[in-house]
């Protein structure tokens, strides 16, 4: 695809002005890195605050057509406890297919609108597919209203709270996976305490025409740097978070992908969602393969597609995400292995350029997640 | 004598020995280098063979043997600190030394000015 055919986010000019190296990603021209470089961008996010343009992701409202609860309707396709979401609460959930495979992962938030409207964010590469699936399966009950006039920024890292609270003090009161409407610099934004880096932080949905001024305002704070897709990927990999289309796909179940935390407790008991037959069976009886964290012992990164071998050299699986973890200073990976190899500490080999390099099955996340949850005291 | 290839390697020729690394343009394009895989001493390469691998945070790239010959020495400092390739690509960040088997292979390579023009033409 030539550059002219790529979509641009409302922040495109700002990325170019900041020296962002623009690459095609999910049909958009997006910054993969800035002059700081992926390593420093990654570490900056872990130590201060990184600003990410994630406007390419799909934002939509899902409303009911007949006054029913749209969350109840979505629960047919998503195994999270959605109908119990209170206004301003959000959940990570999965869009499933009839075979119990994962079409995409997504964030669902209950808005403050009385009719129970949901604000949903889906992956950029999946948005057309996701909307089509939802409308095809649930079209009689709900309507998907894409928010194409909104940009989405993620501000991630330990300084994110102080940076954003300087503009709107109430964001400091949000806990992880809570959201609210906030007036930031005179602009009404939808702010959630969430992200996909393993750090505390926020995602901020802002009207497209206000996005540039708002991003510039955040960047005035010396704690804030632009962070590109390169570091976004290494941050989420260190945090042990799955990437749609890589660490899972439409054939992989939530049990195989090790995202069973996205299955609501009551939803498991009721089994009232598509693909539940397979998923409940796998929860009870296990799966033949499982996604695991992998810690290579040497310095050589094992990239996506690297074959995994057992001690005898037999190929047993494949790496689905892999690279270098700047925070831990060594390579990290995730991949699928047969269930009997999934125990933390199991010795495996990674077939990098024809050589078997030693590695171990590792716990994830590779770095400690630093979400701000409410104390129970 | 310093020569350059279109694959962004530099070759410092001293007698029948060639010291080989990647150019400043190459390290800049690759970004933060996190791993270098070096050849074994004594191995013979033909011009164009895969001789080494350099990995950035993003991706792996091959480094080709720019000439034919045997590997005499490798820069083991890069195994402990691959970022030397970023900080000193033309000096401390050298990859390996080869014994030059056929010096005529150097004839059609670029000199510094020629490489400068070549890189300018890529941008």
Automatic annotation (TrEMBL), chain A:
<dbReference type="Pfam" id="PF08669">
    <property type="entry name" value="GCV_T_C"/>
</dbReference>
<dbReference type="InterPro" id="IPR006223">
    <property type="entry name" value="GcvT"/>
</dbReference>
<dbReference type="InterPro" id="IPR006222">
    <property type="entry name" value="GCVT_N"/>
</dbReference>
<feature type="domain" description="Aminomethyltransferase C-terminal">
    <location>
        <begin position="289"/>
        <end position="367"/>
    </location>
</feature>
<dbReference type="InterPro" id="IPR013977">
    <property type="entry name" value="GcvT_C"/>
</dbReference>
<dbReference type="Pfam" id="PF01571">
    <property type="entry name" value="GCV_T"/>
</dbReference>
<dbReference type="InterPro" id="IPR027266">
    <property type="entry name" value="TrmE/GcvT-like"/>
</dbReference>
<protein>
    <recommendedName>
        <fullName>aminomethyltransferase</fullName>
        <ecNumber>2.1.2.10</ecNumber>
    </recommendedName>
</protein>
<dbReference type="InterPro" id="IPR029043">
    <property type="entry name" value="GcvT/YgfZ_C"/>
</dbReference>
<dbReference type="GO" id="GO:0004047">
    <property type="term" value="F:aminomethyltransferase activity"/>
</dbReference>
<keyword id="KW-0032">Aminotransferase</keyword>
<dbReference type="InterPro" id="IPR028896">
    <property type="entry name" value="GcvT/YgfZ/DmdA"/>
</dbReference>
<comment type="similarity">
    <text>Belongs to the GcvT family.</text>
</comment>
<keyword id="KW-0808">Transferase</keyword>
<feature type="domain" description="GCVT N-terminal">
    <location>
        <begin position="11"/>
        <end position="266"/>
    </location>
</feature>
Automatic annotation (TrEMBL), chain B:
<dbReference type="InterPro" id="IPR017453">
    <property type="entry name" value="GCV_H_sub"/>
</dbReference>
<comment type="function">
    <text>The glycine cleavage system catalyzes the degradation of glycine. The H protein shuttles the methylamine group of glycine from the P protein to the T protein.</text>
</comment>
<keyword id="KW-0450">Lipoyl</keyword>
<dbReference type="InterPro" id="IPR011053">
    <property type="entry name" value="Single_hybrid_motif"/>
</dbReference>
<dbReference type="InterPro" id="IPR002930">
    <property type="entry name" value="GCV_H"/>
</dbReference>
<comment type="subunit">
    <text>The glycine cleavage system is composed of four proteins: P, T, L and H.</text>
</comment>
<dbReference type="InterPro" id="IPR033753">
    <property type="entry name" value="GCV_H/Fam206"/>
</dbReference>
<feature type="domain" description="Lipoyl-binding">
    <location>
        <begin position="17"/>
        <end position="99"/>
    </location>
</feature>
<dbReference type="Pfam" id="PF01597">
    <property type="entry name" value="GCV_H"/>
</dbReference>
<protein>
    <recommendedName>
        <fullName>Glycine cleavage system H protein</fullName>
    </recommendedName>
</protein>
<dbReference type="InterPro" id="IPR003016">
    <property type="entry name" value="2-oxoA_DH_lipoyl-BS"/>
</dbReference>
<comment type="similarity">
    <text>Belongs to the GcvH family.</text>
</comment>
<dbReference type="InterPro" id="IPR000089">
    <property type="entry name" value="Biotin_lipoyl"/>
</dbReference>
<feature type="modified residue" description="N6-lipoyllysine">
    <location>
        <position position="58"/>
    </location>
</feature>
């Amino acid at each position: 695809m030539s550059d002219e055919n790529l979509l641009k986010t409302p922040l495109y000019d700002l990325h170019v002005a900041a020296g962002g190296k623009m690459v095609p990603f999910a049909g958009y021209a997006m910054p993969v890195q800035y002059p700081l470089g992926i390593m420093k961008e990654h570490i900056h996010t872990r130590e201060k605050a990184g600003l990410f343009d994630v406007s390419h992701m799909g934002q939509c409202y899902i409303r009911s057509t007949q006054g029913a609860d749209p969350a109840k309707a979505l629960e047919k396709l998503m195994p999270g406890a959605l109908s119990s979401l209170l206004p301003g609460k959000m959940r990570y959930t999965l869009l499933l297919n009839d075979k119990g495979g994962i079409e995409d992962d997504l964030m669902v938030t209950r808005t403050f609108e009385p009719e129970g409207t949901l604000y949903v964010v889906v992956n950029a590469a999946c948005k057309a597919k996701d909307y089509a699936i939802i409308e095809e399966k649930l079209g009689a009950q709900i309507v998907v209203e894409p928010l194409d006039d909104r940009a989405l920024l993620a501000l991630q890292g330990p300084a994110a709270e102080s940076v954003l609270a300087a503009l709107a003090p109430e964001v400091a009161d949000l806990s992880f996976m809570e959201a609210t409407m906030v007036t930031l610099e005179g602009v009404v934004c939808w702010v959630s305490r969430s992200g996909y880096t393993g750090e505390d932080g926020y995602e901020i949905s802002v009207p497209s025409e206000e996005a540039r001024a708002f991003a510039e305002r955040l960047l005035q704070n010396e704690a804030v740097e632009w962070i590109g897709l390169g570091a976004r990927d290494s941050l989420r990999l260190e945090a042990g978070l799955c990437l749609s289309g890589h660490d899972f796909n439409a054939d992989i179940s939530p049990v195989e992908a090790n995202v069973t935390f996205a299955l609501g407790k009551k939803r498991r008991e009721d089994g009232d969602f598509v693909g539940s037959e397979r998923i409940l069976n796998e929860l009870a009886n296990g799966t033949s393969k499982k996604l695991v964290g992998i810690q290579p012992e040497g310095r050589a990164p094992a990239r996506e597609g690297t074959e995994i071998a057992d001690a005898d050299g037999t190929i047993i699986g494949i790496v689905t995400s892999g690279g270098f973890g700047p925070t831990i200073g060594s390579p990290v990976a995730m991949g699928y292995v047969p269930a009997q190899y999934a125990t933390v500490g199991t010795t495996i080999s990674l077939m990098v350029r024809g050589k078997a390099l030693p590695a171990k099955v590792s716990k994830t996340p590779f770095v400690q997640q630093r979400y701000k949850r409410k104390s129970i005291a | 004598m310093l020569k350059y290839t279109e694959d962004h390697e530099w070759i410092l020729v001293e007698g029948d020995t060639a010291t080989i690394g990647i150019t400043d343009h190459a390290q800049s394009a690759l970004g933060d280098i996190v791993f270098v895989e070096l050849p074994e001493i004594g191995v013979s390469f033909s011009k164009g063979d895969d001789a080494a691998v350099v990995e950035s945070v993003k991706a792996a790239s091959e480094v080709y043997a720019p000439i034919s010959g045997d590997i005499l020495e490798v820069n083991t400092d890069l195994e402990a600190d691959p970022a030397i390739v970023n900080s000193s690509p033309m000096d401390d960040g050298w990859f390996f030394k080869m014994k030059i088997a056929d010096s005529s292979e150097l004839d059609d390579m670029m000199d510094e000015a020629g490489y400068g023009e070549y890189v300018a033409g890529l941008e």
